[in-house]
Amino acid sequence: QAPESFPPLRNEAAVRVLRGRMKGIQGHCNSCYMDAALFSLFSCTSVLDSMLFMPFPRCDRNVQGILRDEIVNPLRRTGFVRASSVMHLREQLTDKGQCSSFTNAEKDPEEFLTLIMQQILGIEPLLKLQSGGQKEQECYCYQIFMDKQEDLVVPDVQQLVERSFLSSDLKLVEIPSCFIIQMPRFGKEYKMFSKIIPSLELDITDLLLDSPRECCLCGDVATLECS
Q1: How far apart are CA 223 and CA 110, in angstroms?
Q2: Would you give the DSSP letter of residue 103?
Q3: Where is each Peptidase C19 ubiquitin carboxyl-terminal hydrolase domain found (predicted)?
Q4: Model-level pTM?
């Protein structure tokens, strides 16, 4: 455990601490979905550090303490988290979520994020989406859904997000404080893409609802949008 708080790893420090053998979060008993989500959310960014410290209205301080002192701080301090620490969190999620399979079964990352953010910590939804002019929906992460497209062999995240929003007729109602994106799912038998290139910056200009944008022909403020 590391009760002292450590900042997220950046640049050379991230390479030094996280690269090599016995680094990252140790996997055990189908924990890969949770390990990957926790590493992505906390290793190199502080955007969601409020989950570790803020006394939210419905916040379970025990779960918050395990997340902070047994997982995030050790990851940032030494670059390694023992499987027993993640199992401790999984046991608490099993108790709080009325789901007995959190300690042994593979879950969808969205199910894990919704449970810990909404039911256990009481955080407001991070995303507001609208589809085809219908009522807006609130959620904590966005999973990319799209059909196989032959022209995308090795896509980047920017391309996947834009095409997924287009195919689902989705728009962001407002700029999100944090945009958690789940890549297209794959299994042992089928992978939609063999590789996906991370986009280090994401341009959401064309994904925002009613956002003033430039006309691609004359350069003035656009009044029409063609998909």
Answers
A1: 36
A2: T
A3: 24-204
A4: 0.86
CATH superfamily membership of 11-120: Cysteine proteinases (3.90.70.10)
Nearest residue to 103 via CA among 113, 94, 116: 94
C-alpha closest to that of 88 among 108, 76, 74 = 74
In this structure, which long-range contacts are made by residues 39-48, counting pairs with CB atoms below 8 Å and at least 24 apart in sequence? 39/75, 41/180, 42/8, 42/71, 42/72, 42/75, 42/76, 43/8, 43/9, 43/14, 43/18, 43/75, 43/76, 44/8, 44/9, 44/10, 44/14, 45/8, 46/7, 46/8, 47/177, 47/178, 48/178
Tell me the residue type at 172. L
Mean predicted confidence (pLDDT) in 40-50: 94
Residue (of 11, 8, 81, 16) closest to 51 by Cα position: 8
**pLDDT tens across 106-117, in order?**
888 898 999 999
Side by side, the strands of the sheet bearing 127-131 are 137-139, 127-131, 170-172
Band (pLDDT 50/70/90 cuts) for residue 31 is: very high
Instruction: Give one DSSP letter per residue of 114-162, joined into a string.
Output: HIIIIIIS-PPPSEEEEETTS--EEES-EE------TT-SS-BHHHHHH
pLDDT in tens, 183-210: 887 666 677 888 899 999 999 998 999 8
